[in-house]
Amino acid sequence: MATCPICRRAPADPKYKPFCSKRCADVDLQRWFAGSYAVPGPPDETPPDDDREG
Ligand SMILES: [Zn+2]
After folding, report:
1. 15 with 23: CB under 8 angstroms?
2. Cys-Cys crosslink for 4: which of 20, 23, 25, 32, Cβ 3.0 to 4.6 Å?
C-alpha cells in the first residue's frame, strides 16, 4: 500500500490520494508552486532595445 509522500503515513482518505489528507496535498502544492515561481530572470520573450536617441 502506498504511503503519503509528505509524512509517510498511510493515506486515510482516498479522496486525497496519494496524500493522507488535504493538509499534505496542500504542502505538496505549495512546494510545486514555490519551485515554479523560483525561476531566475524573466522569460526569453524580451523586447529588443530599440529606443535609440536621435
Ligand atoms: Zn501526509
Report:
1. no
2. 20
State mean pLDDT over 19-38: 88
**Stretch 16-29: mean pLDDT:** 93
SS (H, E, C) the chain: CCCCCCCCCCCCCHHHCCCCCHHHHHHHHHHHHHHHHCCCCCCCCCCCCCCCCC
Rounded to the nearest angstrom, the distance between the alpha carbon of 9 and the centre of ligand 1 is 6
Q: What's the gap in Å between 34 CA and the centre of ligand 1?
A: 19
Domain residue spans of the chain: 1-32
Q: What is the mean pLDDT of residues 4-29?
A: 92
CA of 2 to the centre of ligand 1 (A): 11
